[in-house]
């Protein structure tokens, strides 16, 4: 998922584990070649005590929210970035499958507490915005796909946040996650930005991660 906005290049990658040394080296080398300004990795499956495995000097400073033991989603990482003189609050999330209302309320409260008006929320939201546009299934008896809770929409409205990809691609259908048990596709990875910050030259695209082990 590659976003270009105001000259800032950002990539979000679901790496599905980086414990295997060969895979980790190839992935980090591939990212280096993309010449991104900001790299967000999710599902690294590396524990807090092994954080040094993600250190890669050529990629710059490392920020993590690694757990001491393996656990399910419910991750928030907030970093303040400066693009020229402009301050941007980058909020990386990995939402849980359950108790999403509480998760988004807590995320909202934390953003308000930090008081930055320029906010970008990027990550795996673990469910969808619109059942018609962001979900499809190959099965006749379709699995009931939940949509994001009221707390998410309240956060988006109060912070003036827009789904960047959907704003740039209003009539396009594209998905980011395939569920083999349910034979279904969903668009659960998103970047939300302040409406006023979305410029005409902004670009965003979903790309398949093809790095081999």
TrEMBL record:
One of its GO terms (cellular component) is nucleus. The record marks 126 as: Transition state stabilizer. GO terms for molecular function: DNA-(apurinic or apyrimidinic site) endonuclease activity; double-stranded DNA 3'-5' DNA exonuclease activity; metal ion binding; phosphoric diester hydrolase activity. InterPro entries: AP_endonuc_1, Endo/exonu/phosph_ase_sf. Keywords: Hydrolase, Magnesium, Manganese, Metal-binding. Its cofactor is Mg(2+); Mn(2+). Probably binds two magnesium or manganese ions per subunit. Mg(2+) binds at residues 14, 43, 124, 126. Transmembrane segments: none annotated. GO terms for biological process: base-excision repair. This is Endonuclease/exonuclease/phosphatase domain-containing protein. It comes from Naja naja.
């Amino acid at each position: 998922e590659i976003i270009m906005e105001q000259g800032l290049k950002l990539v979000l990658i679901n790496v599905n584990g980086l414990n295997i040394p060969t895979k980790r080296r190839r992935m980090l080398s591939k990212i280096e070649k993309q010449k991104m300004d900001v790299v967000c990795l999710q599902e690294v499956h590396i524990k807090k005590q092994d954080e040094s495995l993600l250190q890669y000097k050529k990629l710059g400073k490392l920020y993590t929210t690694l757990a001491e033991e393996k656990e399910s989603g419910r991750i928030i990482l907030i970093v303040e970035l400066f693009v020229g003189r402009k301050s941007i609050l980058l909020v990386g999330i990995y939402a849980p499958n359950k108790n999403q209302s509480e998760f988004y309320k807590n995320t909202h409260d934390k953003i308000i507490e930090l008081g930055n008006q320029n906010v970008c929320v990027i990550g795996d939201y673990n469910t969808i915005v619109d059942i018609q546009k962001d979900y499809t299934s190959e099965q006749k008896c379709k699995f009931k796909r939940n949509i994001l809770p009221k707390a998410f929409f309240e956060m988006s409205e109060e912070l003036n946040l827009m789904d960047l990809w959907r704003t740039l691609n209003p009539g396009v259908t594209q998905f980011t996650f395939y569920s083999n048990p349910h034979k279904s596709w969903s668009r659960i990875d998103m970047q939300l930005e302040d409406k006023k910050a979305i410029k005409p030259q902004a670009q965003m695209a979903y790309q398949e991660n093809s790095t081999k082990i």
